Amino acid sequence: MASKIDEFIEENREMYIKWLTEFCKIPSVAAQNRGMEDAVSYLDDLFQEAFSLTPEKLPTAGFPVVYAELEGRSDKILSFYNHYDVQPEDPIELWNSPPFEPEIREGKIFARGVADNKGNLVARIAAIHAIKQLGMELPVDIKFIFEGEEEIGSLNLPAFAKSHAEKIHADGCVWEFGYRDADGALQVSLGVKGMLYVELSVEGANTDLHSAQGAIIESPVWKLVWALSTLKDREEKITIPGFYDDIEPITQLDEEMLAHYRLDERETLRKLGLDSFLLNLEGEQLKRKHIFEPTCNICGIVSGYIGEGTKTVLPSSAAAKLDFRLVPGQDPEKIVMQLRKHLNNHGFEDIKIKVTSSERAARTKPDQEIVKAMIEVAEQYSDKKPNIVPNTPGTGPMYELCQALGIPSASFGVGNFQSNNHAPNENIFVEDYIEGIKMIAALVFEFSRQFEKQGSVNR
């Protein structure tokens, strides 16, 4: 069966590549409200071409969720979560080709959004299309759930999930991302870290002043810098009281997964032009920190004059953006309160906190059918053992859409370790894309088989 589907996909590879490149021409940048309606219209046309159906456009307070369901022969449901929005293309001058004019060179497709996340989105439609075109019955129900706000924090997805729990319900969800390591091994990820993104701001005088006034007028910039310095020590320990209290203990199974998780330290350092990792960590300690520990990161600081030459100014305001990557057990809302109390206790009551986004961490146990099916398929399509990642260090709305509703989720996909997500020259390999279509088609049947095996055991 698999060979027949794979042959069909190979015969129609140019059509599937065209589906993707046409989609990548649309600058669907949610942060700037560019091209979003065009992206939804394109998905309408694509679903019509692939399945002769028009997907539902489920409204949110922002951009709609594009939803479609295809019936299979069993009562089991496999869902695909993806997003049709992309990051802004800046800095455009660093692109080797226009970001919204997809170009194939050296075996790669270059375009903004091709890896994050349009490549995976279209690959999953293409896989189901191939199965249906061959006249095969789907072994399980298929649901497509495509949102348009992932790159701006999925602000409206929690409310959407609560009001559409029945539509979201599934026995397993294939999450949006997926990459290969530097050695070509496919990553199978079982979760994501959570996120608390905040903006800290402080006001001083009602106007910028001559810096000579710094002798008698308080500087908002210094106040903000002093406040930031209280959040983390030089050993990378976050010093907000209670920050670590609710973290779920690492289990023996977690330890086993960590031991098998592969991180190519030398290649990663080479790619980044660095000599060492944070705190000179390596081996098991490095992997543990990368996967299982939360972070506090300063994304940017804004204040005063940073142009060419000198300007002796005492700025009237200062602001910083921070993100906290969270691990299972940590509640973003509770951490906001802890942060507020911490700043107050250090004399920074006048520093304002604005929460931009928050998401809980999510992790799926490796004994779930969706995980076992992914590993089985990854092993079928590669001569290398898949790299099982307990959770990626990045963040997405997985908890709200899956774990909060009791849906196990995991991910693999068409990206590579140098796909340049969110950066210039974003890319995927053409062959990874075509193979990704084949793997998703195989996953649909393997997912069904996992439940059939479980049923025979239960009987």
Question: How is this structure best summarized?
Answer:
With 459 residues, the chain is α/β, with parallel strands linked by helices.
Strand content: 15-25%
What overall geometry do the principal axes of the alpha carbons give?
globular
Rounded to the nearest angstrom, the distance between the terminal CA atoms is 27 Å
SS summary, helix count: 14
Q: Which ranges are low-confidence, i.e. pLDDT below 50, for 5 or more consecutive residues?
A: none
Radius of gyration: 24 Å
Question: Which strand order spans the largest sheet, edge to edge or round the barrel?
Answer: 1-2-6-3-7-18
- The helical percent reads 25-40%
Pairing-aware structural class of the strands and helices? alpha/beta
> What's the rounded overall pLDDT mean?
95
The major sheet is characterized as: 6 strands, mixed
Task: Tell me the total number of β-strands.
Answer: 19
Give a structural overview.
With 459 residues, the protein is an alpha/beta fold. It is built from 14 helices and 19 strands. It has helices at 2-11, 13-24, 36-51, 114-133, 157-163, 165-168, 220-229, 252-260, 265-272, 283-292, 332-345, 369-380, 398-401, 430-458; strands spanning 56-58, 65-70, 77-83, 103-105, 108-110, 141-147, 172-174, 187-189, 191-203, 209-210, 295-302, 313-314, 317-326, 352-359, 362-363, 387-389, 392-395, 409-410, 427-429. β4 and β5 (108-110) form a beta hairpin. The radius of gyration is 24 Å and the shape is globular. The model has no long low-confidence stretch (mean pLDDT 95).
